[in-house]
Design goal:
InterPro entries: AAA+_ATPase, AAA_22, ExeA_AAA_ATPase_DNA-bind, P-loop_NTPase. The chain is an alpha/beta fold. The protein is built from 13 helices and five strands. Helix 2 crosses helix 3, helix 10 crosses helix 11 and helix 10 packs parallel to helix 12. The longest helix is centred in the middle third of the chain and has 17 residues. It is elongated and about 65 Å long.
């Protein structure tokens, strides 16, 4: 609706992930490098955490694409599966055949797979998204799976990805056996103000914007404050602001439009309102 008005070839702040449009902040780069190192070095367990909407799943997809010639990476995105369904799903992901859907049969076939891939130099990675939703019983099943990797000569890396409460869950004394196998942890930080500005410009560029000053400096600062530096919330707020700006026939998104959009989206307000925006002060404006 607003694309022609703002000179855009497509909507810049879509929520649907697009592997061709990946913005890498310093935090994202470090998260990716940490996971990449952990897999290449064949670490047993890796834990990646981050708040909702910070790009954890995007990092996982990028890792899978980057290592597709060196590893077999299977991703489980539904952590609420029953134990039976979990093994059925893994059998499908690792192409072990329908006969391997029973747990005992799966263990035998999966051990054979790990040993075969170890001989050919191919590493096996099991990545579990939304791992903070796993049941205690499922955590134990995953720990037992890691035993097979150890028996096959460090042939398996398990990556647990989840919200910050995952760290709290793993700190429980009942998780001691699994926790002792975790060799790498990383938490994706929220964007800094500078990251938010770069992100908005990046998304506008990828959308084919003819001009990059669609959002003025004070508007960008407010986007950061309302979103707390969360990429998903930045997308939601900026998309709403563009629609509101179009409806108001404003070619520049200013602070007032951001405030109105944030109020309609019921986003918590900034801790304080400054007379002059951060980016304005930074640039002497």
């Amino acid at each position: 609706m607003y694309r022609d008005f703002y000179g855009l070839k497509k909507k810049p702040f879509e929520l649907v992930p697009d592997d061709e449009i990946i913005f890498m902040s310093e935090g994202h780069k470090e998260a990716f490098s940490t996971l990449f190192y952990g897999v290449i070095e064949r670490k047993g367990f890796i834990v990646l955490t981050g708040d909702v909407g910070t790009g954890k799943t995007t990092i996982l997809r990028l890792l899978k694409r980057s290592l597709r010639k060196r590893c077999i990476i299977a991703m489980v995105s539904n952590p609420t599966l029953t134990i039976h369904d979990f093994y059925m799903y893994l059998s499908s992901l690792f192409k072990l055949g329908s006969a391997s859907r029973a747990k005992a049969r799966f263990m035998i076939k999966f051990q054979e797979l790990l040993e075969l891939k170890a001989k050919t130099g191919i590493h096996v990675v099991l990545a579990i998204d939304e791992a903070h939703l796993l049941s205690p019983e499922m955590f134990e099943e995953i720990r037992l799976l890691s035993n097979l990797g150890m028996d096959a000569g460090a042939a398996l890396t398990i990556v647990l990805v989840g919200q910050p409460e995952l760290d709290h869950i793993l700190s429980n004394s009942k998780m001691r056996a699994l926790r002792q196998r975790i060799t790498i942890r990383y938490h994706i930080p929220l964007f800094r103000p500078y990251d938010t500005r770069r992100y908005i410009i990046f998304r506008l560029q990828k959308a084919g914007a003819r001009r990059l000053n669609i959002f003025d400096y004070d508007a960008v600062e407010l986007v950061h404050e309302y979103s707390k530096g969360c990429p998903r919330l930045i997308n939601i707020l900026c998309d709403h602001a563009l629609l509101s700006g179009y409806a108001a026939n404003k070619i520049v998104i200013d602070a007032d439009i951001i405030r109105d959009s944030a109020r309609e989206l019921e986003l918590a307000g900034p801790a304080s309102q400054k007379r002059k925006g951060f980016f304005g002060r930074l640039l002497g404006m």
